[in-house]
Amino acid sequence: MTEKPRRESRIQRKNRELILSAALQEFSARGFAGTTIDQIADAAGLSKPNVLYYFASKDTIHVALLQAALEMWLAPLREIQAEGDAADQLLAYARRKLEMSRDYPQESRLFANEILQGAPRLAPILGGELRALVEEKSALIAQWSAQGRIAPVEPRHLLFSIWALTQHYADFEVQVRAVLGEGHDPFAEAQVFLDQLYRRLLAP
Predict the structure, then answer these.
(1) What are the b/e assignments for 70-86, b being 16+ CB within 10 Å?
(2) What's residue 133's pLDDT?
(3) Distance in angstroms (rounded) separating the CA atoms of residues 174 and 203
(4) Minimal CA–CA distance to 198: which of 133, 126, 141?
(5) pLDDT for res 55
(6) Crossing angle for the helix pair 105-116 and 10-30, nearest 10 degrees?
(7) Domains, the chain, ranges and CATH?
(8) Would the keyword Aminoacyl-tRNA synthetase turn up in this protein's UniProt record (predicted)?
(9) Disulfide: which of 16, 32, 138, 150 matches 155 by Cβ 3.0-4.6 Å?
């Protein structure tokens, strides 16, 4: 008879969350190569053996964070459905992506660092699950264009542009704030601009 896996205690869950939070901070600031288990342990306030009790290696922690980040990014894309106003759904998607860049900048930078390194840990997912989801939503966007519900647009490059424009505000936040100067809310201003941009682009 197979023994059921034991449930984690409250302390174990807390320690796992501490490790992941500390690792996210270190990886997003230093990249994978520049981060060590010792740095993660110090940031988490735990010993190195304690960290390795929960995660077998630095790579294991990194993959767990990447998978969580990717799942978060994919959630609003999955919410685009055939029902409802086409342009409103795409605008809502762009707004949600911008909100995620505002609320989860470290996750965005972690993901960007992985892509810049050639996506060694995410390549199978990018060419599998992500590609399949993009193809599904691209077919829907193409259908909306054919029906005259939105202007003719290349669906995949539309999605690429939304990713690039929204995640820029997380990945290059220091630059954005330096250029805008004091008294500006980059994300509030970006939301107005992106709404105008995509509404005009998608108007049939």
Answers:
(1) beebeebbeebeeeeeb
(2) 95
(3) 33
(4) 141
(5) 95
(6) 60
(7) 1-56 (1.10.10.60), 62-202 (1.10.357.10)
(8) no
(9) 138
